[in-house]
Design a protein that fits this description.
12 helices, 6 strands, alpha/beta, four-stranded parallel β-sheet, globular
C-alpha cells in the first residue's frame, strides 16, 4: 500500500470476471480490387490492404478502450496512473494515446505487441507443416475455444499447466494452485468475447498488427512511461530499451525482474513490488513537488 493511493484492479471487458459482451471480431480478408500486373498497381493494393487492416484493428481496440473510459467516467476519476500487463499493456497504451489527459503515468508490464514482426514472418511459417498448422490455429481459433471443446480433459490440461509452472514457487501451497487452476478453467470456458482480440489485434506469433514501438516513435504516446519485464520473460525488453534512447522524454525506464517470467508478479512478487512501488513514489514526489515527470525510473 502507498499512502494517498487507491488501487483499482479490474478485468478488461470480455475477460476475467467482467461481462462477456459480443466482440466485434475483425475479418482480415484481402479487399477486392481491380489492381493487377505492374509494380505501381501492386503497391496501391498493398496500401489498400493496410488501410483496411488498421481500420479493423481500431474497431477491435474500441471494444476495450470505450469500456475503460466509461468505467473511469462512472467513477469520476479525473486522472490516474495506468498499469497494464501483456495484452492489457497494449490496451493501456492505446487508451493513453486516446485519452492522454486522463493518464499521469503509464506503467507497462511485459506488454505484447512492441516490436515490428520479421519481414518474412508468414514465409517462414508456411515452410513446415507445423508452422502452417500453428498459423491456421492462430487465425481461426483460440486456446479457450479448444478448452471448451475438450470438457473435463481441458480441466486436466489446466491443472497440469498450473502445477508445472508454479508448483515450485516459494510460499505457494497446494490449495493456492488448486484455486488458480479452478479460476483459469472457469474464465476460459465462459462464452467467447475479449479473447478474440488474440487474432484481431495480434498477428500470428503475437506480433501486433499496429506495433506499439511504431506508435511511440511517431510521438503518439505523450505520457511518461516505464516498462517492467521478467528476467525469463518470453517478451523481449529490446524495443523498450531502444525507445529510452530514441524518446527519453516519454520512455523513462525499463526494469527487469530477476527470477521472474512473463508473470513476474507471481514468480518474484517481492522484487516486483519494490520496483513498482518505487516508480509510483518517485512519480508522486515529482507531481506533488513540481519536479521533472520524466525523471528516470
Amino acid at each position: 500500500s502507498i499512502p494517498g493511493v487507491r488501487l483499482y484492479a479490474i478485468d478488461w471487458i470480455g475477460m476475467g470476471r467482467s461481462s462477456r459482451c459480443t466482440f466485434p471480431k475483425a475479418c482480415f480478408h484481402v479487399p477486392r480490387t481491380s489492381h493487377r500486373g505492374n509494380a505501381e498497381a501492386k503497391k496501391a493494393t498493398t496500401a489498400e490492404i493496410r488501410e483496411h487492416e488498421l481500420k479493423q484493428v481500431r474497431r477491435s481496440e474500441d471494444f476495450f478502450i470505450d469500456a475503460l473510459e466509461q468505467w473511469r467516467a462512472n467513477l469520476g476519476l479525473s486522472k490516474m496512473i495506468l498499469f497494464g500487463h501483456s495484452l492489457g499493456g497494449y490496451l493501456s497504451t492505446v487508451y493513453t494515446i486516446r485519452y492522454p489527459e486522463r493518464v499521469s503515468r503509464l506503467l507497462l508490464c511485459s506488454p505484447v505487441g512492441m516490436p515490428q514482426p520479421p519481414a518474412d514472418l508468414d514465409e517462414r511459417a508456411i515452410r513446415t507443416w507445423k508452422g502452417r498448422t500453428f498459423k491456421w490455429l492462430w487465425e481461426t481459433t483460440t486456446p479457450q475455444s479448444v478448452l471448451r471443446g475438450l470438457g473435463w480433459i481441458g480441466r486436466k490440461m489446466i491443472n497440469k499447466f498450473v502445477w508445472g509452472r508454479w508448483a515450485d514457487l516459494e510460499g505457494v501451497e497446494e490449495q493456492d494452485l488448486a484455486k488458480i487452476a479452478a479460476y483459469l478453467h472457469t474464465i476460459s470456458v465462459l462464452p467467447p468475447s475479449g479473447e478474440l482480440a488474440s487474432n484481431s489485434i495480434l498477428r500470428f506469433g503475437a506480433y501486433a498488427r499496429h506495433p506499439l514501438g511504431d506508435r511511440f516513435r511517431a510521438g503518439e504516446v505523450k505520457v511518461p512511461t516505464s516498462f517492467i519485464y521478467g528476467g525469463r520473460d518470453w517478451m523481449s525488453p529490446d524495443t523498450a530499451r531502444d525507445l529510452i534512447r530514441e524518446s527519453p522524454k516519454t520512455v523513462v525506464g525499463c526494469h527487469v525482474i530477476a527470477n521472474g517470467g512473463h508473470n513476474m508478479f507471481l514468480e518474484n512478487p517481492e522484487d516486483f513490488n519494490i520496483v513498482l512501488r518505487e516508480i509510483i513514489l518517485v512519480h508522486l514526489a515529482c507531481t506533488e513537488g513540481g519536479g521533472d515527470l520524466t525523471q528516470k525510473r
